[in-house]
Design a protein that fits this description.
The protein has helices at about 40-45, 90-100, 105-115, 130-145, 160-175, 185-195, 210-215, 220-225, 325-330; strands at about 5-10, 15-20, 25-30, 50-55, 60-65, 75-80, 150-155, 180-185, 195-200, 205-210, 230-235, 235-240, 245-250, 255-260, 270, 275-280, 290-305, 305-315, 315-325, 335-340. The strands form five sheets. Strands 6-7-8-3-9-10 form a six-stranded mixed sheet, with helices on both faces. The protein is of the alpha+beta class. It has nine helices and 20 strands. Bound molecules: adenosine-5'-triphosphate. Adenosine-5'-triphosphate binds near residues 14 and 39. This is Molybdate ABC transporter ATP-binding protein. Keywords: ATP-binding, Cell inner membrane, Cell membrane, Membrane, Molybdenum, Nucleotide-binding, Translocase, Transport. Pfam families: ABC_tran, TOBE.
Length: about 350
């Protein structure tokens, strides 16, 4: 474990009480509805919001009942939702401030500026920056502090799609070295970046654990919001040039999805429960390309004639949303063996 917290605070009528631990590395998605307490939690960990209780990182105590390290002595790279940059300094000045504090090398400086594509903006005053530009400066500043823990509050919300993709890759790489606590409401960021999940609900940590496990729960955070989906870890198999289909394997089964060209990585696939249909026997005369043998693990009635089915499939979890009529017709119950069907286009 890296960060361990057992803290509590009040802000007006709101009460936050969190007991959690972050793995040594990887991106932990801090998920929760607006007002759940995400920003308050990040500020408390960073030392910007007074709180009670224990905060420790590895064997260093940042706060206990006797003492609290001031914010500037905690090795945290923090990017808040509305980043505050120094208004009297230009972009370079803002970055230099962070680099000096951490003693970042010239090499690191060049690397971060290149990753965040800030070179053309270096001489600009920060007052005139767009929301997305200011976010990139704040992200660069957080990276330049050479932190032991990186905490980002919706860091990409103002960026265009292309930059979001590029910076997600940057953040994922940072997560290979250190723990990243990452607030987002965006499903694609959850799925692309998340290794672990902290689900904050009304000031308390309702769930914490590996992302794939947490999402596959019938009462998981996305299921609660009607957007149930899982992440599958697949292996690259090949590329069908003729049909422009990427081929991946999941256990013995082959998954196919439209792709412009071959990719050599082992992609994570987001599969929404609404894109999965079920059949008791493998359908051979259907346009559906992806048919996976699976076993029903558990079911949840969602009301309004809808039902969420949790399936075990090649050692991983899959969710399917079907009507209660289909559930009854197929006789779905735990232990039933069936075939899960996923349209290739739904996997893009
Ligand atoms: N200075 C304050 N005084 C009183 N209440 C506050 C103060 N700051 C925050 N709160 C309340 O604390 C609760 C948690 O706020 P917080 O900003 O941590 O939530 P959040 O999960 O980050 O929300 P969002 O996703 O909208 O940013 C909210 O109910 C908010 O109104």
């Amino acid at each position: 474990m890296s960060l361990q917290v057992d803290l509590a605070l009040e802000r007006g009528d709101f009460r936050l009480s969190v007991n959690g631990a972050l793995p040594e590395r990887g991106v932990t998605i801090l998920f929760g509805v607006s007002g759940a307490g995400k920003s308050s939690l990040l500020k408390a960990i960073a030392g910007l919001q007074p709180c009670r209780g224990l905060i420790r990182f590895d064997d260093r105590v940042w706060q206990d009942e006797h003492q609290a390290l001031p914010a500037h002595r905690r090795p945290v790279g923090l990017m808040l939702q509305r980043p505050t940059l120094f208004p009297h300094l230009d972009v370079a000045g803002n970055l230099r401030f962070a680099a000096r504090r951490s003693g970042a090398t010239d090499g690191r400086w060049r690397e971060v500026v290149a990753l965040t594509e800030l070179q053309p903006l270096m001489e600009r005053g920060v007052a005139g920056l767009s929301g997305g530009e200011a976010q990139r400066v704040a992200l660069a500043r957080a990276l330049l502090t050479e932190p032991d823990l990186l905490m980002l509050d919706e860091p990409l919300s103002a960026l265009d799609a292309e930059r979001r993709q590029a910076l997600m890759a940057v953040i994922a790489r940072v997560g290979e070295r250190l723990p990243v606590l990452y607030v987002t409401h965006q499903l694609d960021e959850v799925m692309t970046l998340g290794d672990h999940l902290w689900w904050l609900d009304r000031g308390g940590l309702r769930e914490q654990g590996p992302l794939a496990e947490c999402l596959a729960g019938l009462h998981g955070p996305l299921a609660a919001g009607g957007q149930a989906a899982v992440v599958l870890r697949t292996r690259h198999r090949g590329y069908d040039e003729r049909h422009h289909l990427l081929e991946l394997t999941l256990g013995d089964a082959v998954l196919r999805l439209p792709a412009a060209g071959p990719r050599g990585d082992t992609p994570r696939l987001k599969v929404a429960a609404r894109d999965v249909s079920l059949a008791l026997s493998p359908v051979r005369d259907s346009s559906v390309l992806n048919i996976l043998p699976a076993t029903v693990d558990a079911l949840r009635d969602l009301g309004h004639g809808q039902c969420l089915v949790r399936l075990r499939c090649a050692g991983q979890w899959l969710l399917a949303r079907v009507s209660t009529l289909s559930r009854d017709r197929l006789g779905l119950r735990p232990g039933v063996a069936l075939h899960a069907q996923i349209k290739a286009a739904a996997l893009v």
